[in-house]
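In the previous chapter we treated chains in isolation. Here, by contrast, the input contains two separate entities that must be folded as one system, with a combined length of 422 residues.
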Amino acid sequence: MYTPYGNVAAQGQPNQFIGGQQNLQHPQPQHPSFQQQQFNVPPQAHQQQHPQSQQQVPGGGASTSYTSFLNDPAAALAGQFARNGFEQSNQYIQQNFGSFIPTGTTDLKYYFQVSNSYVLKKIFLILFPYRNKNWNRLSLQDVTGESSSSSPSNSQQFAPPNLDVNAPDLYIPTMSFVTYILLWAAFQGLKGDFHPQLFGYLSSQTLAFTVLDITIFKVGLYLLNCSSQISLWDLVGFSSYKYVTIIVLLCWKNLVSDYWLYYYPVLFGFIVSLALFLLRSLRFSVLPSLSVGTTTITSKQRRIRIQFLFVYAVVVQGLIVLFMSY
Amino acid sequence: MFGLGKLLYIVILTINGIAVLSEDRFLNRIGWGSSLNNGNTNAANQYQQFNTGFDNNDGTSVKTKIVNLIGAIRTLLRIPLIAVNIAVIAYEIVFG
């Protein structure tokens, strides 16, 4: 029986793991005369393939070499390394850019699980943080109280904001952002120099300050080599809590008193409160927690980190609040 | 007035300023050159990277971090910066 294509089909079985490129090609008619012709005038691509196929026709040597490759311990080790690195990079991407990918919306839902009591408590905490004793974020197991030992991998999951006052949310930041813009425009309107363009200017300015703020903190975290347990949305939340302070200051300034003797003490009082709140809340992101103790840092590093946190929470935030409530 | 446009200018000008730093005229002279520091320990670093997936352990000090950052910006953002600068220049010529 003479089938010019059958030869290739029979050849394809042992070959399909070794030379992937050979499977991609169209089956070539392998007449003896045609083969002869190809050998006489070999193009460059065929020159490499033909010796291979000539070798593999007689025996199944190729498949045995593939199975020995599977059993090779070095190959297994390399595969493990590759998988390990891939998982780590995947985790890194999920941690840093996962919030931009639309599939990660469960990540955003976490920040909007708020309740009335949480919002009240949090606003009170921002304005008067001196009464709060415990600043650690609760994990999910602390709240539910069950399945503590069964899943150690889930120990890093934090409780949602409606169960934990110290958890960051995004509800208060978005609402206070909008409120700030509307309130500023309203007070400008009371003074008589309102213009619709003011909304655009103000939102642009406020967003620019937020971006600048987060960039400063991110660069600081990178330079100080902090292990970033803190996600980007956490940072957005924490850096936007200052709008609450700014709103209160705006109301005080425009409704109670503009006179400097009454205004500046209130201003600095609220700035100090906000700074204390941020210092205590962001502490866990900059300094490794004492209870874990796996990543130890030297006292010098610790001092530099505390100084950075102080500069960020007091100086940077204070200047921004001072500028935006002006 | 400070806004998103000004912030964009600030970012572009800052990155331009970092990218324009000369390796052999300026950075190596003050000891911040990325090529001089890493030349010796490159192999060890690569081994560590292979081991852990990322280089978590090396470069703990602030200076090495800054040097790495400058080197990364200089190598990575050089070609995108050309396009961005051309776009900004064209915008400024037409509307500025």
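Chain A has three domains: 1-51, 63-97, 106-324. DSSP finds 15 helices and no strands in chain A. Compare these points with the single-chain example from earlier in the chapter.
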